[in-house]
Amino acid sequence: xxxxxxxxxxxxxxxxxxxxxxxxxxxxxxxxxxxxxxxxxxxxxxxxxxxxxxxxxxxxxxxxxxxxxxxxxxxxxxxxxxxxxxxxxxxxxxxxxxxxxxxxxxxxxxxxxxxxxxxxxxxxxxxxxxxxxxxxxxxxxxxxxxxxxxxxxxxxxxxxxxxxxxxxxxxxxxxxxxxxxxxxxxxxxxxxxxxxxxxxxxxxxxxxxxxxxxxxxxxxxxxxxxxxxxxxxxxxxxxxxxxxxxxxxxxxxxxxxxxxxxxxxxxxxxxxxxxxxxxxxxxxxxxxxxxxxxxxxxxxxxxxxxxxxxxxxxxxxxxxxxxxxxxxxxxxxxxxxxxxxxxxxxxxxxxxxxxxxxxxxxxxxxxxxxxxxxxxxxxxxxxxxxxxxxxxxxxxxxxxxxxxxxxxxxxxxxxxxxxxxxxxxxxxxxxxxxxxxxxxxxxxxxxxxxxxxxxxxxxxxxxxxxxxxxxxxxxxxxxxxxxxxxxxxxxxxxxxxxxxxxxxxxxxxxxxxxxxxxxxxxxxxxxxxxxxxxxxxxxxxxxxxxxxxxxxxxxxxxxxxxxxxxxxxxxxxxxxxxxxxx
Length: 582
Known about the structure:
It catalyses: Hydrolytically removes 5'-nucleotides successively from the 3'-hydroxy termini of 3'-hydroxy-terminated oligonucleotides. GO terms for molecular function: metal ion binding; nucleic acid binding; phosphodiesterase I activity. This protein has about 575 residues and is an alpha+beta fold. About 50% of the residues lie in helices and about 10% in strands. Strands 6-10-9-8-7 form a 5-stranded mixed β-sheet, with helices on both faces. The chain has a 3-stranded antiparallel β-sheet with strand order 1-5-2. A two-stranded antiparallel ribbon has the order 3-4. α1 (about 15-30) crosses α9 (about 180-190).
């Protein structure tokens, strides 16, 4: 089914957040209704039938932190009859008007002054020191949580808000639907990391998004069982982060390998995280078990680090050599070379050294201090004037990460926005949800191959121009449209060889997260067709590792690159000593 046109609320509307929330609920009911239990679907449909004020109050509470709310803290101009609205929500099973809570939960809701009043009511014979801080007052109250010494601490005493503190001048309400709204959030966002404010409190109309076809086959979840597996994995991660769990027991609760690639990648990351915590806790054997079960790309490196302490040098050497052959990420290769360097001599094997880095040409220029501008733009102006003085026409553009990323996106648009399962969850995504996952490219390999083949058959220029016209202004993490204007686009397509573009795009695809940045600041097109890439460094600025790696790669491709160190012509700013690459 095609993406429907959805209403986008303006921030001028006092109920804009409610309109956006309704969009979420209707989307989930339409596209994921079969993944909801019947009672869940009925409750969401019932919510949409409630009076507007009841819907508004509920969404206000859902967007706030926690499930417990003092009525004195709920003040919204759009809700004019709070008691009646709350009663309607309670009758619809969204709100509990007299929840029973523990002393610990109560103390989190009270100020220091209120805790003192609670002490005076509950423990009138105990004087609270004036200098006591909040935690000390809570310690005084703590015996009230377990009045029966024979009761286990886990069975903490529970009473209503008024039961604990009859003198309170307000009431306490509790949301009874957060599990349902977490489910809705998962089905809409595709994760439980994003909160409601990232969508509900956003004016959606000021950005344009690619229209992606949403079909049942493109959903991340095909069955409710898969939804429940995700929720279980999330619960495992929360337990890990809380540190209130035995790691070995947590590992046993992780499901076996899954046939859903999207869920399996989450399982792999969870196992890797458990392994890292086991390492920190000095549980090496448990960590190895986690890494061996995890498909996370860093798991093999962590395994090798542990095997250095327990296996023979030859076993480690052979395994590291095998890993190096398949490693595609630069950071992986760096770690593997370090491991090989440590174990080679012990294993009686030759030292394996990484390729020697290329020498990057340097140049030094002086320009007027760019008041109101940037050192990159001042340098672009310098090279433009330099060309004029030499009798040539040089077009210099400040592009940094915009040009090559933009060309890549325009060429590979069909692959980047392919509606694969787990990629797109709602119509307001600027990129696939799995863009930075390790398997992003492999899942779309045939699509990327098809796009990159256009660089071989010469049709790439037509494809890039076509998508530049068709997709102008659509939000993506690769395109900054104001910097990708036609004069620059035409010069780039005319003078950058297709073979070099293909090599650049292939490296970008090796590690999108790392390689999407670090491109040189300037590109210069000389009148004779020669292209120069220049990384600009102002006074005190230093070359970063990811910038160096791109420059070295460009040199391998035979491209003209350099690092340009800039100093100021006037004396209003200190000029540093001649900098060195680092």
